[in-house]
Every structure is written in structure tokens, then in C-alpha cells.
Amino acid sequence: MSIDESDIPALARGCAILGTGGGGDVRTGSLAAVRAIRAYGEVPLVELADLPGDALVVPLSGIGAPTVGHEMIHGEDEPKRVAEEVERLFGRPPSAIMSSEIGGSNGVGPVAWAARLGVPLLDADGMGRAFPEVQMVSMYVAGLPADLVIMSDIVGNVVTIRPIDGLWSERLARAVCVAAGSHALMADYVLTAGRARGAVIEGTVTRALGIGRATEGAADPLGALQDRLGAVRLITGKLTDVDRRTTGGFVRGTATIEGTGDERGRRLTVELQNENLVAVEDGAVRAGVRAGVRAMVPDLITIVDTETAAAVQTESLRYGQRVSVLAWPCDPLWRTPKGLETAGPRAFGYDLDYVPVEELTAHG
Amino acid sequence: MSIDESDIPALARGCAILGTGGGGDVRTGSLAAVRAIRAYGEVPLVELADLPGDALVVPLSGIGAPTVGHEMIHGEDEPKRVAEEVERLFGRPPSAIMSSEIGGSNGVGPVAWAARLGVPLLDADGMGRAFPEVQMVSMYVAGLPADLVIMSDIVGNVVTIRPIDGLWSERLARAVCVAAGSHALMADYVLTAGRARGAVIEGTVTRALGIGRATEGAADPLGALQDRLGAVRLITGKLTDVDRRTTGGFVRGTATIEGTGDERGRRLTVELQNENLVAVEDGAVRAGVRAGVRAMVPDLITIVDTETAAAVQTESLRYGQRVSVLAWPCDPLWRTPKGLETAGPRAFGYDLDYVPVEELTAHG
Question: Which Pfam families did the record assign (chains A, B) (predicted)?
């Protein structure tokens, strides 16, 4: 199959839901995708099994603070510069582009990047959601060496990092990103299709499209979305407090939702770092105390408009919005010991043992 | 000729004088040079004319705040990692190492790096002195494209930057340097011997050795040094005030010297940013007012111990030291319009038109 202009709105809605508040503003990625498809034609969507084992897959993502990415006009030559560097280093051009993170703008942007390069998009990504740090990808969890990062910024600089590990990869890429104006296009874990098997999360472009289409024309969009995701509804109410600041290339903060209607008197706080990380009822997360915690990273927590079921991204949170909070299980990869070490609650500074959302909400 | 262990003290003294206070602590470079020569043997010193036109010359320097470089134990594998990256990108290994800046530790360190790699050292550098920013090199002034920077840090990360210009080269390299612990080894303007002609300052290793030897056993070391450099003595006195802080990978500050003996009542202030930049008598530099300015960058200003004529580096400035301040002309390359635009007083934020030290001190 191919992705054409008519698929972009559904893809964008699905990617916003999977973005758990982050991954960049999907409007930015959508505009870029529509513009590129009009100029270069539709983008073939391929499965890993369709590619020869030695085909080069280039995982791409925008890196930077969403509030900055949102406002910057993206250059159009970044994908070309990354592809040129890939060809210089590997002696052959990319066979396919992959989204590093399906959540948010980074799930839609790769359609534009693939269109510009004239290569197919792989139906897979490295997260099955969005995460704020570059080492938080399935390739890292699968034990692939984080031996090469290629970055291209809007002014035309290209930076190649050969880090000793994933944490240095994050530290150096973030420093380059901040120096380059807090936004850049990044290729991380360039790999062959052969090595990608078992190291990427397959089918996630198709899944995002399906999520986006689930609410189209639905009488009860919130219910339709919940069914599609297999999600628990944590609260329905009103956004009463948003505390959000941009520091060191990240957006950090909290969003507080107070219950309305039948749920009057309840209060849920969502803690976020680009993405929504922890949802806790009646209070803040305290060291080691998980009383009140209803869901935690790497499980997915998304704030949606109660009426339309559209995701509300971190940068669009506003006092008084009528919202519901949904939570659902992450890909099993993230529940392995290496997965939790990489992107569990402690990786974000929370002194909490991970408990799956199904258990946390079973008696809720 | 070759550089052996017995040459290192003189080379270090000369490089410290040419460092105008900066370029890193020469003791660090000296220790590394002695250790590497003992392990790998003496280092051939070659002239540009000795190399075939297509021989690869790799200009190397340490980048970072001197106060940090001073205290960090340097890794020994950085030169090897840079050379491997050069070979990966150019398809052949380096034929010679060149010091990017002859001033300070960066003039002595390349002896160690060349010894470890088993390649000759080129008798040339990119500054004829020391400068704080990476675009302030003769290759940039000569119009060579700043198209590649290779950095290797102490933990083993390798970063390659393809910047759009010299200023972006500086901005990105500095960001990587700070993220990597404020110190890294850097190859900038990897070039063939053919392209190096007219784009590097030749003979500066020999010059540094000659400066270092001028004071050996001299009855009047200060006079001998002054003669060798063709330098003017701006003041002899006592260090009465040192204001120094490390921010964003740089050391910035001022040093004030009050005259003693015949010069009692006089006061000279040296403004510095890693290196000594402006010497002004009786007052601070005010916008556009050069009254009292006795020497300014790119001319060289070095504070020396009055008795031994050894250079006092920025990080060693101490209240009460008996010092003299010498100033002498820079290489003619720095007095061209492009040279002054790159490293003249305005490049450092001083609202001053450049006037050669010979003119500023002719009526002093």
C-alpha cells in the first residue's frame, strides 16, 4: 500500500494519540507530509519482510523541544543531507526511511522525508509511542550498538556522532540540538533490514492509521477510541492547572484535571517531560509512595478532548479544557528488564517500581 | 631534524610565551610529550616542502577551558580515534600532524600525538600564537572551507561536524566540548600539503624552540627574550588584581599590574578571554575610546615573570607576582582585512579599531 494525501489527517490523529502529549506538534508534520506528497507523489509503505536483508533502513526523527519545533519553519534539505551522509559512510543510499518514534509529529514527518528522498516508508518504528530521550528506542533495548548518530539542522550543518553508548548519544545529540536552535533532524541506529528484525516495533504506521480512523464519523468518539486502544479512562473533567516550562531542550511540568459530572470531587495530576509520564490521583508523586498512582511510563497516558477524542498535546494544554485521560499498555518490549531500565519510571527520576496499568486500575 | 625528550622544556617555554596566557597549561602538554617520546621514540619535524602535494596534514588541538584541561587526565587514545576517522573519511591515513595553535599546551601536545601515531610533526601551525575560538585559524583567513571538524573526547566518543561556516564550526564544537566535560581533542581543516601552502604559518615549531632557548643560561633573561621576540616591554611591576571566571567553556577576566621601582605610579590592565587580548594603561577599555590602549589582539601580549622571563599563563596568575608585560607584532596574515575581521578587537567584542602595537607604543 501507499500513503497519499487523504491518509494524512487520520495518520496525524493516530500519531497524536500515541504521542502521549509529546513527539512534536502533529500539525507541523502533517503540513510537511501534505506538501511533500503533492510535490513528489505518494509514499509506498513497506513491511520489513519486503526488504532484502542488506537494505539500509534509516530511522529518522526530529529532536528538540516541542514548543520550539512547533514554531520553527523546517528546512526541506535536512533529509537529503542526512541521506548524503549515510551514502558517504555506508557506500550506498538508504533503501527505506523509518520513523524513530511513531508518536506525535515524528510519526507523520517521515512521510514527508521519504517522499523527498523517493524511498519507501517502513511500517515500523523504534518506540510504538513517543519518548523524550534518544536512547529510549527499541534498537537500544534489543542490544544493538548505538554507534552512529547523524544530525542535520535547519541552517545546513551536519553532525555525525560515534558515541560510546546510548547515554552519551543522548548527551551529545542534545548539546548539538540546543546549539543548533533547539531543533534538528536525526538519524539514529542506521541499520540493515536483517538487523532490524526483532529490534524494531513492526506495524505501527498501520496501527496509527487505524487509531486515527476509529473516531472518524463515530457517534461516541471517546468510546470508539477507548475500544480501539484497549484503554482505561482515568478521569473525565476540566483542566484546572497547567505548569509547563522549557529547559535544556525539554518541556517539563504538570497538568491537573478535576472531575466533572459524576466524577466531581476527584482530581488527577499528570506529570510530563515532553510526554505524559505518570498519572496520580489526589496528590503528587512522593518518593517510593505509589498510593494514588493510576498509570506510569512506559505505559501510555494521553489527554484527549472529551467530545472529539482528539489528543491534546503538551503544548496545547489550556485552563478550562474539557478533557478525559486515557491509559493503556505499552509494547511488551518496554516491560522487559532492559526496557524498564531504559524507559521505566526510574529512568525519569521517579522512585517508583513499575506496575502495569492493568494492575493499577483493576481495583480503581 | 627530530624532536626528542631534551627539546621539550625549551619547546614548552616557547609555546607558553606564544600562548599569551592561554592555549592550555604547557605542563600538561609537556608531560604527555615526554611520556609519548619515551614510549614511541623521537618525532621527525618536517617542512611543508618535504611533503608530497597529496599528503594528508591533520591539524590537531585540545579544545576547552584551560582551567579544566589543566586538571583533567588526558586519555591516550584520542589521537588514534581521530586518525581512524580521518582514514575512514579520506580513504588514507594522516601523513603528518600539525599543531592548530602553537601557543600554550596545544603547541607541545602535538609532539605526543605525532609520536603515538608514528607520523611526523609539521613545522607550522594555524595561528602563530593562541586564540580562543576554533574559526580563528590561518586556514579560515586563507579562505579554505571549514567543511569538517573531527572531535574525540576522553571517554571515547567521536563527533564529526560538517559545518556551513567557521562560526557554526565554533558554536557546535564548543557545545560538544562542554557536553563532553569541557575538554576534547579536535582536528579542524584536515587538508593536503598542496592546499596547506599559503594557508598555514610555517616555521613556528622551530620559532617556539628558539624562543624557549633564548633565555637558557642568559644573564638577563627578560632582555634576551625581548630581543628574540622583537617585543616592547609595557610595564614591570606587581600583580595587584586578578579577576577570572570560567563560563561556557572559556576563562574570562582581567589582570592588573601596578608599576614598581622607576615605574611606581603606573598601572596596566590586561583583559583576557583564555588569551590576553588588550593591554590598557590607567583605566578600562571604553566603547570606541582607545586612550591608554598600549596593545591589542591580534598582536601578542604576554605576562612574564620579571626574573626568569617565563610566561605566566592565565590560570597561574596570582596576587603579588613580580611580572613584566611584553607585546609584539602578530604574523602579517592577522593584519589583513580578513585576519582582523576574524581575530581583531571587534571579533572579541571591543569597539576598537585595530592599531599595530608598534604605533601604539611608538610615543609611549
Answer: S-Me-THD_C, S-Me-THD_N
